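Attaching the record inline, Q. Sequence:
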Amino acid sequence: MPDQSRVAIVTGGARGIGAATARRLAADGHAVAVIDVEETAARFTAEAIAADGGRAIPVAADVVDREQVEAAVQRVVDELGAPGILVNNAGVLRDNLLFKMTESDWDTVLGVHLRGAFLFSQAAQRHMVEQRWGRIVNLSSTSALGNRGQANYAAAKAGMQGFTKTLAIELGPFGVTANAVAPGFIVTDMTAATAARMGVDFEAFQKHGAEQIPVRRVGQPEDVAHTISFLVSEGASFVSGQVVYVAGGPRT
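Structure, as predicted:
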């Protein structure tokens, strides 16, 4: 159990890193709001948490829609209490080389990642400031350092780092920390989609990836969830404005 149970919001919590994070935070003793664009998808994670003895609710929200975001946060307040933890994990891929990338590809990725994190952070921080305690964790990526075929995703994930550092400066005086986690190769539906786009067998894709990683394995969603668990803990109160690469090496 944590030093004090909090109410946590995890966006994109239906699957992958988001689902693993929601389950880990629930196991830590926090009540969790699992946010996804479709409530039926979020319900699977919430039910898994309940089956393990935790407390969670599924909440539908399109992270780029201010009205839906504010309604979702209000529902969390009404059903679970004021949020003290926010994990901005919602994300999408629209990979393509620059000369093939459409404006829609660009706008969709920047919108979900950056606008979504902005809207949820703005809505949640009001409650954190009132409590004089809060933890915001934003999902970046090693792609923030540049990655072929991901100009939109790389720009969004680099933007998440600057956004995080600014939140740390602005919200720190109110007892709120902000950090970013930048995963490397993590086995999720998104990495499977990348392999499919490249026309590569996913098992072979993982094997090749592991060979490039110093610890000689690919990551699992739980690897990221463990790091987030620390960053939202009482013990991480002096860690803010940082980008933690969870990638099995300095850059993978």
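The mean pLDDT is 96. Strands lie at 7-11, 31-36, 56-60, 85-88, 134-139, 176-183, 243-246.

More tomorrow.
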